[in-house]
Specification:
By secondary structure, the chain is mainly α. The protein has eleven helices and no strands.
Amino acid sequence: MEWHSKEYRQKALDSLQGHWGLAVGVTLFTDAVSLLLQNTSGNLLIVTDTLSWIVGFLLTVGSSWIYLSFVRGGDAAFSNLFDGFRSFVPVMLTGFVQAVCMLLAVLPGTAVLYAVYGILPYGQQLDTAFLDKHIGGFLLITLLLILLPSLYIGLKMSMTSFILKDHPELRGWPAVKASWRMMKGRTWRLFVLELSFFGWIMLAVITFGIGMLWLLPYMSTATAVFYEVNKPV
């Protein structure tokens, strides 16, 4: 039977009962580490940006495994947040493949922007005169050729971290391909699920982002529920 967004969200809330302290702690720690690394700049900007991506990706994988454990009725500890580091090679190989896929997704749009306006997305500051003259075309190209492809590819690869947990023998492209196969015919349903959190996101914004400490685990757990319900038998 096909689940609806409300059912995924309810199952996520049920799974988080008794685990909210750990979930919020994981979110707070991950955000703090990300903020610390992003604020490190200077001559080592490229190095710190790369390090920030690596650490952030590994923590994201670890947190997704924690939420999957909640969904399955198991226990988890804060130390499980670092499970991605313990499986460094397969996890990072898979992360690299995902990054390449995202790069390929935005490459055509980036090339068009450069050809039409001589700029790269976020590559330089746009002055007011440029925005007044070209904002319509700039936003249209960015939306159609960069944001939408990124969203689509991201949804297709969204099950990859869970697949790595259940199938550690898969790494790199096979893990990404398994997610792609699983999401066949389900991409729109996951998009609708994520869109159903829009109202909660607005409420979290009103709290100056503090509400995100609870909302992000809620959303991530709902995604884990989506995987658990729709994974291949």
